[in-house]
């Protein structure tokens, strides 16, 4: 497992992720705790998030307004914490993207077209869980959640589905201009 300093040095040496137009690198449907599927495509719906994901099967009942319905994480960050030793889906995030998910680029309320679907970035912070620490180590958790870098959203970002559709690996990820928003 990589140390905090190694992770930061590697991140700093990487080219910045795209800010305007990125892509979907991996999809992860969490069927149940510890059971992840990585399909090439998945339906996203306003009611259930990713089709088949455990979010819609009762474990998120305390989240009635669906602000943590779907999670996105930068694929480069995932590769750094996985260090070639863990599959990327082990992070447990639904959609890994080659895209800048920082607060500066995607403030809460921003809408993203991801494949045929539209997601809205939530104000609810995504800080991960004990499973993330067990899989990637305490330094990975400290690095991704360090309070001085929270605006980077290294651990990922929560979103809700505002327009259903199909998301495929390789699909485009881009901001939806506010003028193009349709009422949900």
Brief summary of the model shown:
With 184 residues, this protein is an alpha+beta fold. The protein is built from 4 helices and 12 strands.
Q: What does this entry look like structurally?
A:
The chain has a single domain (4-170), classed as Beta Barrel (M1 Pyruvate Kinase, Domain 3). It is α+β, with helices and mostly antiparallel strands. Helix 1 packs across helix 4 and helix 3 packs across helix 4 (138-145). The strands form 3 sheets. It has a 7-stranded mixed β-barrel with strand order 1-7-6-10-9-8-12. Strands 5-4-11 form a 3-stranded antiparallel beta sheet, with no helix packed on it. A two-stranded antiparallel ribbon has the order 2-3. The termini are far apart. The chain is globular, with a radius of gyration of 15 Å. The chain has 4 helices and 12 strands, in the order αββββββαβββααβββ. The chain has helices spanning 4-13, 75-82, 130-136, 138-145; strands spanning 21-27, 29-32, 35-37, 41-45, 49-50, 70-74, 95-98, 111-114, 117-121, 157-163, 165-168, 172-175.
Kindly report the average pLDDT value. 90
- Number of DSSP E strands: 12
Q: What is the assigned CATH homologous superfamily?
A: PK beta-barrel domain-like
What's the CATH architecture?
A: Beta Barrel
Helices, by number, come to 4
Which stretches are poorly predicted, pLDDT < 50 over at least 5 residues?
none
CATH topology: M1 Pyruvate Kinase, Domain 3
Please give the order of strands in the largest beta sheet.
1-7-6-10-9-8-12
Shape: globular
Number of separate structural domains: 1
The H/E string reads HEEEEEEHEEEHHEEE
Major β-sheet annotation: 7 strands, mixed, barrel
